Amino acid sequence: MFDALTERLERLSSSLRSRGRLSEADLDEALGDVRSALLEADVELGVVRAFLDAVRTRLDGEVVNQSLTPGQQVIKAVHEQLVEVLGSTPLKITYASRPPTVVLLAGLQGAGKTTTAAKLASWFKQQGRQPLLVAADLQRPAAVEQLRVLGSQIGVDVFSHASDPVDVARRGVEEATRLGRDVVIIDTAGRLSIDEPLMREVRSISDATSPQYTFLVIDSVTGQDAVATARTFHETLELSGIIVTKLDYDARGGAVLSVRGVVGRPVVFASTGEKLSDFDLFYPERMASRILGMGDVLSLIEQAERTMDREVVAESASRLMSGTFTLDDFMAQLNQVRKMGSLGGLMKLMPGVTKEMRSAAANVDDGELNRVEAIIRSMTPHERRDPQIIDGSRRTRIARGSGTTVNAVNQLLKQFTEMRKMMRQMAGGGTPALPGGMGRMASLAARANAQRSETMPEGFEALAAGMKSATPPTRSGGKSKKKKGGRVTPPKQR
Amino acid sequence: MIVLVLVLGALVLVGAVIIVRARRRPRRPAPAVARAPMPEVLVTQATPRPTIDQVAPTSFADRLSTSRGVFERVRAVTSAGVLSAEQLGLVEEVLLRSDVGVATTNEVLEQLKNDGAVDGLALTLRRLLLSYLGSSRTAHTQAEAGRVAVWLFVGVNGVGKTTSIGKLAHRFVSEGQSVVLAAGDTFRAAAADQLEQWAIKTGSDVVRSSEGADPGSVVHDALGRASARGADIVLADTAGRRANSTNLLDELAKVRRVADRAPGQVVETLLVLDATTGQNAVSQAREFLAAASVTGIILTKLDGTARGGIVVAIERELGIPVKFVGVGEGVEDLVAFDPEAFVASLLDA
To answer: What are the sequence ranges of the domains in chain B?
Structure first.
């Protein structure tokens, strides 16, 4: 859906460019697409409207940028607006001068409060604090048990008491003072926003403990209802921020924008997985890209900049351009990729990567990469420079040497050859069939780049142009379809 | 798999080229872009859902009895035949706000535009939505002779799988059936404890194992126990899982195979969905359908303000029928799905 949005916007007639200005009608068309996309991402209807108005104002009369197509310009404006809305008024955690700092978690049933409480405790611990968890969810069977188990996993004490929730919370804070803990995290019972007795209860807990921070825990897959929920909680508790959970699901997470739009409080933390370490501060840029389904090129590039060895990269990049890319370069490249982190994580940042590819990548373990490396390492330097010479007997030797099969060696060689062919055509501005992600990646990267230095570097322009022309409108491309088109068969389970 | 590495290598190279080129060029400060002022609070009155503020209905039935709101407005602007843009806009708003989703909403609008609404907008809209909810909703409880019927519960985290099992156990037990619960959620801390408490509360039997144990073996043991004791039905819990993780879904498929092997027979695989879930519910349904051959949906938390309209899209696109709805916290509050009542409550937003 969103990938389609990006495509649609980019295809907005290039004749617009010559006019030098986005007309009202162009904008209507483009924003109509954006509207559908936002709604598909579960952004609440009212918030969508307010958001589109703001984007329209932003774009109104803006001179068309030379290096961006009108479609790209709209995407850029939408992206920037998203970042601005999501990232304005950030919350900086400060600690009470007289400890403990009390943090109250509230939210609907099943949003992930209990897990979040433990993750938050673990985060505070990393910040050098000494948190205490208070289990005041006496509603759900075994909720206290769950927090105890999680607490023991992260080495944080859990306080609870079989009385009423308000009492538990109050005593929890007292206990923290007695033990000299400086942060108290109170987990409360999940409730439906229209359940008045429970809303009163959480209010009493809040009154009894006067928390410095009250966080609403919200599930990223929430639909239109996110607004009603957030509003009720905000009216009851005066939220200081939002914690979004389950960002590892493939939902676009538009609920985050809805909630931010309605209560005007920042999203502070994001929970991205089942493991207790999958928890971090919230990054507006990432969320904006995610809502737009753009992947996160900026993070990707940042990560690349941080971890990659520029010399190595520059060398293989130039060889790539000249079409003399060897298996040695490939392996160097592979190692650079490895340094950047897990394949699954990288794929998440990459735009235009289909869900199939993503889940396939999530299942690629280091062993697979090791096998590829082993195959290449079992070749002689000569073979690596010129894979053409690898005949049947060499293949057998390589397979034996790397502990793999001839079949695997064949596969690697075949795909390497095709990749190289494609790269060469691309660098030469040819028109190989290159469906899907790459072209989009290039244009998105171009945009990211344009944001950095406004004009695109010359060499890159050529590359980007080559790639753009190489992006066919459909995925019915040629032979290489299997390779790049996202139609990757998930690996066999071992 | 090697394919992936190559794709990745290629993509990263492109990224690398960008970096290198960008570095070589001195950065110029980007010219200031005209910033549109964005209000601190975007929408203060975002959801004009009249019924919520006026009355706070606590049960599904209550909510049905207060069939007012926009539905009334829709009726109010009704004139037979051709629909005005305003009317269509209203329909769109109601459907979108109920999480029905853009695709289904557009289809409804298209139909309304083409066919008009001869017998009134309200009725036509109702009929259209009901036409998407056409599947059979029988919940099967009978296995072949000599085998034990198994209901398998699947879904993502936090939708209310365990609670739904507890409520259904209560239902079966009060009908005089003997029930075995299988604590197949061996991942979430204390999930088995939660199920055990339900077992005690409802008078059913429970089979559990330690945390991190193989869920397949728990289900297997539960089947053994059920067939030894001549129990009527096994309700098997599973760990909540993302719908986009192949490994976890494979594991689920395995649990299903174990449960379907004699003496067990899976007669229902129920996907538990939270009514507050938005468009992601469709992809959840699709993935679970592929991994575990889902035969029905339990829509939970319908007693909140969420409408759960996404199940219309799911039934339209994937043909998975909703079989039960959770309409409250009480143990009796899991009832058979009634399409008429559901559509009425969607339109009552």
So the answer is: 55-132, 148-337
